[in-house]
Amino acid sequence: MKVCKTINEAKYYIEQIKQNKLNIGFVPTMGALHKGHISLIEASKKQNDITACSIFVNPIQFNNNSDYEKYPLTLDKDIEMLENAGCDMLFAPSVAEMYPEPANEKYSFGALEKVMEGAMRPGHFNGVAIVVKKLLEIITPDRSYFGEKDFQQLLIIKSLVAQLNIPVEIIPCPILREPDGLAMSSRNMRLTQDQRVIAPEIYKILQASKDQKNLNSVPELKKMVSDQINCISDFRLEYFEIADAKTLTPLTDWNPPVCAIGFIAVFMGEIRLIDNVKYF
Ligand code: AMP
Hints:
11 helices; globular; alpha/beta; 9 strands; 6-stranded parallel beta sheet; single chain
């Protein structure tokens, strides 16, 4: 696997690939890789000649400095995992390389950024948009892969490439889970042993809510999930919202019928976990 630390190195590598008329799949990440990330690499390998990954912990998308400073860094292990997965190229730039000047572009995503992660983490999606635009410009992939774990981010990225006419196909990938149901996340490694035992309850409660969908109104189902989360003292519920999968408009009724998704954010100590469940 070719490891590029500078934009010039990465662009040079990509130029050679394009000269050979090979197509490129791209998986942007913040590292501390797990099987969820690797599932995106695998999806890209199936559809493209060359798969590139990036690892960059993007400071401007963190609205909480301690979360940024404590974000796990495991580059050597990440490189090993990417090599084992057959990734062809890794772009792992420094902060100075990506932001020689402070980034000040402002993007607007309308209703998509007004709810849930957008409401709770001011500036987060603007930071995500800035870095993803830069990365897509450097790597110029044919396809780029994003996990449904960060479902709202996926819609924001789709909106970004549509607004800026970036010629890339955005491919959604399903959530990969631990055997006990916990959605894989780089932040899981920061949970204590005790927290890690309890964390899968989030998934269990979400799954159980699927069976309750037809028996309850939207407000009843929201209350049921919220109450169940709040019953567990290690959890601090930030939000549970049921929203339209296309527009992210929060639902108040199951009618008119739309594809609905339940979105949750829960704190365990200072670790923030997110997950979602499809009700269709
Ligand atoms: P991150 O490194 O957390 O920024 O994630 C990089 C990409 O991997 C994003 O598109 C995430 O949605 C995706 N991802 C993270 N965790 C999972 C998971 N458990 N299953 C599928 N995709 C994931």
